[in-house]
Amino acid sequence: MFIQISDPLKPEIEKPTQLAIGIDFGTTHCVAAVIKNGRAETIPLNDDGTDLLPSVIKVENNKLQISSDRTSGVSSIKRIMGRSFKEVIAVYPSYENVIKDSDNGIKIKTDIGYKAPIELAASIFKHIKSASESHLQQAVSDAVVTVPAYFDDTARASIRDAAKLAGLNVLRLIAEPTSAALAYGLDTAAEGNYIVYDLGGGTFDVSVLNLTQGVFQVLATGGNPLLGGDDIDEIIVEHFRLTGLTYSERKKAALSAKNVKEKLSQQLKATFESPKSDRSVLTREQLERLIFPWVTQTCDIVQNTLRNAEVTLSEIQSIILVGGSTRIPLIKQELNTTFQLPIHNNIDPDRVVALGAAHQASALKVGSDNILIDVTPLSLGVEMMGGVVEKIIHRNTPLPIQKSQDFTTFKDNQTGLVIHVLQGERELALDCRSLGKITLSGIPPMPAGMVKVRVNFMLDADGLLTVKAKEETSGVSQKIQVKPTYGLSENVMAEMILESQRLAQHDMSQRLLKQSKTVAQQLLNTTQAALQKDGDLLLKSELSTIKNALSNLTSSLQHEDRNAILVATETLNQATLEFAHKRVQKYLNA
């Protein structure tokens, strides 16, 4: 038997540390980065040594491959991940002939059959993994992947699962604006409050962050997914009134529009070539008129996000620009006019998100003095009796977070409970998005209100939710990781927040009405059960008074007049006071 010995005077050869990379999985292109010698640098992902990888998949040699041909390949995959068939068709009517519905979500037509978006995304991640290993000359298995701040649980899970299919272990998912701020803050040693204005190919996100002594905390986030570079391309196509285009022709027109848009960021006019062989000139001035309402809308979203963060303009140091679409001159011009703050784009907006992800990947792999605190974009809660929502984790709560709340039964001897988990800002369950249900059975039969069920919400650093419910007496418990069939499209998420603000007064009145009805119904149930058991304690006149009050309350519940319900409820309460006293005396003397 041999044993290995080492010379104490001769240091052992260090094994190379396995690197973790940062990946910006973008709508238009993807970027990967890594920390080397303490600095973040991007990784060449294309055969020509460039680092901006087209987010386009095409079938070559009977396999899914990366392609630079946006006219025939499948592009903008990120925009449809986690969406249902109806959602995709509503936003992209031209997709109708190239996608189909299935039990597990949509599938997209390719030359080798229909493929799920997660499979197409996995092909991109595989390419990134392979190219990174070739460049770094070592295995790469760990990564931090960025997602739009408004991605919901399913969309986030889809991105993580796609990376997993490609052989990558996702150390963490972080919001794109947060990642950009991380890169900016570490490279410039900046401190204070910052607005991150992130306008990419598919989404618009804005975050207000505080950077203090290595702590990067998101104070609030907002956005709108229908304000991306792809949508500017569509505006240009619509401007030229092209009709009757096939799916392929529409893609060619969008590509021509993209080229025109990019040229107009550098020059005053450019030529648009339509698939119908027409050539038309578009000037920068015309483009700015077309997208001006669109740009002012982004400024409105910035102002709303500032209000949510409870930060004034005087407390903001500067605006950080992220995303290739921020190169449009009008963007910077309007931000300057509206906010009159310094604007920073000294780190390439196409690469800054990946660079920040690389910093976070390194921190999670080898440690760091910096702390990153993200937030949840929408509130999470459960449905109460009457269909009202009890929010447990509120929007813009820092992650990770764990919160518990106690609930009870509505009826006597109730042995089961369904906990309906919801996401949204409205007051009623029917106006929020259902995330899943927990059925808790085997609860000991007890009087209504005596059972104690603790519901625990755990939202991890990736923004993924786990809900656990436990009945304290019996110990009966259930747990689910919320992962619904379809993701919530980002435009619906933005609309949910806008609706919650627009309909706040209406929603609150409806909530109060529902709660009043629930209290009234519970009083009815309790009174009727008491009469059935101890009605013989009452005089005829007392019984008649209570029955009249019961009838009036029952009648009031058929209508939507909250004041009438409150009056009828109080009348029944007063009518049963002596009855309650007699029952107490009966059981005390027993």
Describe it.
By secondary structure, the protein is α+β, with helices and mostly antiparallel strands. 37% of the residues lie in helices and 26% in strands. It is elongated and about 95 Å long. Residues 1-15 and 483-490 have low confidence and may be disordered.
Give a concise summary.
The chain has 590 residues and is an alpha+beta fold. Helix content is 37%, strand content 26%.
Individual helix count:
14
List the uncertain runs: 1-15, 483-490
Total beta-strand segments:
27
The largest pleated sheet is described as: 6 strands, mixed
Strand content: 25-35%
Oligomer: single chain
**Could you say which structural class the secondary elements and strand pairing correspond to?**
alpha+beta
**Gyration radius from CA atoms, angstroms:** 29 Å
Query: Mean of the pLDDT scores?
Result: 81
Helix content: 25-40%
Dominant shape: elongated
How far is it from the N-terminal to the C-terminal residue, by CA?
86 Å
